[in-house]
Amino acid sequence: MKRNIALTIAGSDSGGGAGIQADLKTFQELGVYGMSAITAVTAQNTLGVEAVYPIPLDAIEKQIDAVATDIGTDAVKTGMLFDSNIIELVAAKITKYKWDNVVVDPVMIAKGGASLLQREAIAALKHQLIPLATVITPNIPEAEELTGFSIHTMEEKKEAARTLHSFGVKHVIMKGGHGEGNDLVDLLYDGNDFFTLESKRLNTKNTHGTGCTFAAAMAAALAKGMSVHKSFEIAKRFVYLAIKYDLNIGKGHGPTNHWAYAEHGTSKESRGK
Ligand SMILES: Nc1ncnc2c1ncn2[C@@H]1O[C@H](COP(=O)(O)OP(=O)(O)O)[C@@H](O)[C@H]1O
Ligand SMILES: Cc1ncc(COP(=O)(O)O)c(N)n1
What we know:
Elements: E1 5-13, H1 19-29, E2 33-45, E3 48-54, H2 57-70, E4 75-78, H3 84-96, E5 102-104, H4 122-129, E6 135-136, H5 140-147, H6 154-165, E7 171-174, E8 183-189, E9 194-200, H7 210-223, H8 228-244, H9 260-264
Parallel strand pairs: 1-2, 1-4, 4-5, 5-6, 6-7
Antiparallel strand pairs: 2-3, 7-8, 8-9
The protein binds adenosine-5'-diphosphate (ADP) and (4-amino-2-methylpyrimidin-5-yl)methyl dihydrogen phosphate.
């Protein structure tokens, strides 16, 4: 049986709920063979980030080259990239290896407030990496940082999506987890039209790694040859179920449940069968 494959370029979360660990679990659950290039090691748990150790640039480069020169990939997902040197390296490798199906999750700040991206790196993210992406998946604070204006209403979300699209990315997904109210809306813009996926806001503190999980599910579905719109539907459902059937792990903001989609999704969607 042919297996599609995906590469995550992101930070390690020792607590297992976000970063590389969330990405690989999501790839596995969606039937995609997962590979990784680690950009930084975090000492992290459900209570927060204790420390961040960036990986030397040449070690990141060698991980990416090792994957590219032997295996290749059907999709790439980027998460925590920490500084502008790492962003420039990742952009150069995506260009060199002509990778498409690139999902850029512009990770900036962990839910507990720790910085996962240096401020000096925002320009490189905007001008070097985002233009290479098939889809970017900012949450509201990340979209505010990238566009420079505050976002509250649906019209402002649409305006932010148009602005981000003008940076050169093909599709923008504005995630709605940080909004207010009981209804939660994720918005996709493809340069022409807007599409929304709505859900109830689930009442839980266990949302550590939702953004990573969402973007990894997008990458896995794209790796399997699905359209961006179909991948959006799968990613939304994957993360919704992962939050709904949350796990009681840790004393703080616990991880999501990466088994939930296979256990509670429809059999047709689960594991790509
Ligand atoms: N409480 C919640 N209930 C249901 N879905 C949620 C909840 N929080 C986040 N999500 C979903 O998880 C995904 C990640 O959203 P968001 O929290 O905005 O991103 P991030 O984790 O990057 O901050 C989105 O698809 C969003 O709709
Ligand atoms: C290594 C790493 N990468 C990303 C996140 C963001 O997590 P979230 O998806 O909760 O915003 C994190 N906390 N740690």
